[in-house]
Amino acid sequence: MVFLGWSMVAQGQVQFPEIPEDQGLDKRRWNGTLEPVPAEPDYAKPEAWSRLPLDLAFVKEPSTSSVDASTPQIVLPKGIKSAHLTTLTSAENADVFFLHPTMLLEGPTWNADVHDAEMNAAVDKWPIRHQASAFSGAGRIFAPRYRQAHVRVFSLGDSLSWAAAEIAYQDIAAAFRHYLEHWNDGRPIVLAGHSQGAFHGRRLLQEFFDGQDLHAQLVAAYLPGMDMYAHEFDTIDLCRAKDQTGCLCTWMTYSEGFVPPWLTAKQARPDFEQGLCVHPVTWTTDKGVANELDVHLGVVRPSFRLSRPSAVTGHINDHGTLWIDSPRVLGGKLLRRDNWHSGDINLFWVNIHENAVLRVQTWHAAH
């Protein structure tokens, strides 16, 4: 539900925070109640956000949070020159509402405290820097802090897990309502998130966009790292072309030939429905058609450095997930792993960056 480390220690590569192998499923390790529930965030205050546009007046006020006038909104990975990326002007861009994945991996509590400085620093260092940055060319970034649920909730699925997830979602919904009321002003919206962020992003799509007037403002939703299904939406379609708008892009990344146990179990059920999947290089839903190397634009490694382009080939399989070959980066043959959850965005960072820009341009052209 969060970054899985894909590092080469011998080559000095930096490692993402790892999910504990047992995800803390020994019941002696956690509280038997949600209490104490951390205090809810106040989204009228800048410290309740990991990132906000610097053109918002109250962000420029003195603040001890990471969001203030002296902090660049988004830093680009090393090796990327801004001249090589498309960045839209304020008159032609959109708003990006970004939901970070799980970073609460240890401890007995069920929900993270948004006032925990150490946790906030980890969120800012990893998903905000590595993932939200992929959408920076498309427009202003709004990334709320929220009382994220512990990673174990996605393995347990019990009543406490659902209650913890509900606390997390209610924060996100409150942040989104505050954003709409105070800052949107009719602007187009890119909804983005990974893993737990995608989990909550799906519900945000269902409640605020699907069959609602706000759907007209949706550029696209980029929600990888969580299985999603067609029956979950009434009017929101899967993105089937690179310039389609008002649609959903989602995918889950695994090595060629690997089918995760959770999917095998689902496939054995009589009511099995294949998950949705969009290829984050070709931006189509075509199965079995691998992207050519020359259309892959680059990987952002855990060291926050750009690899060379033409590094990843992959295709959508008959299971409804994305299979990739070992990345063609320094030491790529040593990077073999079955689950590439950690790389759902980083492996395709430049392609995502450019596609988000294209969809925003398409939206403006149609409106």
Q: How would you portray this structure in words?
A:
This protein has a domain at 38-251 and 344-366: Rossmann fold, CATH 3.40.50. Mean pLDDT is 88; it is low at 1-13 and 61-72. The chain is built from six helices and nine strands. By secondary structure, it is of the alpha/beta class. The strands form two sheets. The protein has a six-stranded mixed β-sheet with strand order 1-3-2-4-5-6, with helices on both faces. It has a three-stranded mixed β-sheet with strand order 7-9-8, with no helix packed on it. Helix 4 (196-209) links the parallel strand 4 and strand 5. The longest helix is centred in the middle third of the chain and has 26 residues, at 159-184. 23% of the residues lie in helices and 10% in strands.
Range of helix content: 10-25%
Assign the CATH class of one domain: Alpha Beta
Instruction: Kindly report the average pLDDT value.
Output: 88
Structural class: alpha/beta
Q: What is the total tally of β strands?
A: 9
